[in-house]
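Sorry to interrupt, but I need a hand with the structure work. Go ahead and set the record down below:
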Amino acid sequence: MSAPPDIIGILDFLRAAEGLKATTRNAWTSAGTQESVAEHTWRLCLMAMVLHPRFPEVDIARLLKMCLIHDLGEIIRGDVPAPDQAGLPAGKATEERQDLLTVIQSLPKASQDEIIELWDEYESGSTAEARLAKGLDKLETILQHTQGMNPPGFDYGFNLGYGRDYTGTPPLLADIRAELDAATSKRRDESGRG
């Protein structure tokens, strides 16, 4: 007995999504291993879950779905560190969306449409859920950089400006940002790169 074709396509997608476990980011864990995109996504979702009660106007299911899919396209070309994104000819978002379309092609059309809609909404920052997901995404990255076993010469100063457009409001994100900026400054000063 074989599975229905839509299940085969879903399994093919899930097999492809496993690639995020091996796709590394420009961040290191506290154990000194390079962080994977899947690890970043997991903690981003955890942040969204535990902070969600502070944002009652936000649809938690939609927020979590955005967090889950926001980096799916990185399976193909990998993660591009923020300082390097300006040099991409087509732009990070354009390339990542093209890659996302490739990754989801085996899914049923309704699932593809949902993922594309969520990704486009996230990228445009057009809703409360998208703005919160983007802000939390930036904050999770900075949090990792404040606790990771980063290599010598790591540029902590970059994080002091990184993602400011997404982390200044609402006030809770600004408060978290202030705490992370203090931790970033401390790490920078300890590293002697102040």
In short: The chain has a mean pLDDT of 94.
